[in-house]
User: Which sequence fits this backbone?
């Protein structure tokens, strides 16, 4: 026969503890043992699954950021560095053969230098917007400007507050990268049909709330681009890095993404 004791059944701690002794048959004891074992196994499996999901999300985030910097470096090597080399060679020729340069030629190279300077400004803003320490809303608006010009089929409505609470540079960069990654993943590449995107930033109960609403042109686009595994990785990464929440709702052809921190 097997016995075990259960203590502290009394809710009133001032009362004396009662000890109740149960006598179980071997069959009931075996059932209790197997039940506890199976429960423990289920808990371990759930923990391992959650841990694996976290690792996959962080690995995905790290890969995306590494690829982003790699592509930026390739842009610098193939564009800005080549342009700077050409400008330097022309300036060298200008110092030795000034009579061969007309006013029009000089203006041409001045324009090239202005374009070169503008490209450097754009690069620095892509890496880290100058306004990021002062205003998260302004940084978001600058990020979206590149999407305005490069994706004419996207119709943006941006609703940003005039003032925003102090936000660290690190956290602001994570928010910007989350917006950028969401748009890259959830927007079909090369789509000619219009897509409506609404983005808002709010303070709610001392929490930051970013909403990105995407309205797709048809059901096929919605199904293809709103359930990708990369979106789950993005949400998990955001929740871990920001100690916040990320979730979405869908209705008809619309998907609402929420980022809270």
Assistant:
């Amino acid at each position: 026969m097997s016995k075990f004791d259960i203590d502290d059944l009394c809710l009133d701690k001032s009362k004396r503890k009662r000890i109740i002794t149960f006598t179980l048959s071997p069959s009931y004891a075996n059932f209790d043992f197997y039940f506890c074992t199976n429960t423990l196994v289920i808990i371990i499996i759930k923990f391992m699954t959650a841990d694996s999901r976290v690792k996959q999300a962080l690995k995905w985030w790290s890969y995306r950021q590494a690829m982003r910097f790699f592509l930026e470096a390739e842009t610098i090597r193939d564009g800005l560095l080549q342009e700077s080399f050409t400008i330097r060679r022309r300036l060298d020729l200008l110092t030795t053969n000034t009579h061969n340069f007309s006013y029009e030629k000089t203006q041409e190279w001045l324009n090239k230098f202005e374009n070169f300077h503008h490209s450097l400004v754009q690069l620095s803003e892509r890496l880290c917007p100058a306004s990021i320490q002062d205003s998260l809303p302004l940084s978001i608006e600058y990020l979206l400007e590149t999407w305005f010009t490069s994706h004419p089929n996207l119709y943006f409505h941006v609703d940003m507050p005039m003032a925003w609470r102090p936000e660290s540079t690190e956290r602001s960069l994570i928010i910007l990268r989350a917006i950028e990654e969401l748009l890259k993943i959830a927007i079909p590449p090369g789509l000619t049909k219009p897509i409506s995107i609404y983005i808002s930033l709010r303070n709610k109960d001392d929490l930051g709330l970013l909403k990105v609403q995407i309205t797709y042109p048809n059901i096929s686009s919605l199904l293809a681009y709103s359930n990708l595994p990369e979106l789950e990785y993005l949400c998990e990464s955001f929740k871990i890095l920001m100690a916040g929440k990320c979730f979405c709702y869908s209705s008809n052809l619309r998907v609402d993404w929420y980022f809270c921190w």
